[in-house]
Amino acid sequence: MKLTSTIHVVGGGRFGFGISGELDCHVYLINSGSELALIDPGLGMGRDFDTILDNIRDDGLDPKRIRKLILTHYHCDHVGAAAEAQKRLDVEVITSKLSAPVIRSGDEHAVALDVAKAAGFYPADFHLPPCPVDRELVEGDVVKVGDLEMTAYETPGHCDGHLSFLITGADRRYLLGADLVFWGGRILLQNIHDCRIDAYSNSVFKAEKLEFDALLPGHLQISLGSGKAHVNAAATSFRQLGVPPNLM
Ligand SMILES: [Zn+2]
Q: What are the chain's domains?
């Protein structure tokens, strides 16, 4: 599904557009014109990744042109399909320095899959396949997708190792926020070992300082023109020592 000349949504489940696996996050495809990059390929149950590839073809794009697989954080609804994507596409796999060892090992405790399965969020027989990582990012690193630049910002709080990206050089400025901030200034706190409220507020304050038009979250509504307002709303709640409304 083409959102703009730069951004396609090619997957998403019941908290998205319902165009791939039920539990998939929003799966974004970035098109610079000369190169494609896939962001967070979803959970990867059954043939769900095939559906994502079909969606890319339906948008008139060839998945063989995808050269980068970028993973914002290690939660399974975002990276479960990473190993399959890495095997089937000719891609460099890119994530944060903190997420990389966890994604390489498929450590189910580190990604909170053990507790998420116990809580019924994922099927009991789902396992996270380990995925090689080629490049590890830290704050300020830039990933080039053709002429576009994606600047990495460390935005922990939702979980350790979470990255957001400012995309520049395109038709507008995008904050690819993943699970940092959602529509209406909501956030996603969960009772898991690496969810940290103080880190979360600092990450939102960091995003508030960036200049962007569009907010590309990991779930729910997308804003192409007033993305900043949603980040500002979350920051305002935190500044008043409160907690923004939670997604769950
Ligand atoms: Zn998450």
A: 7-239 (3.60.15.10)
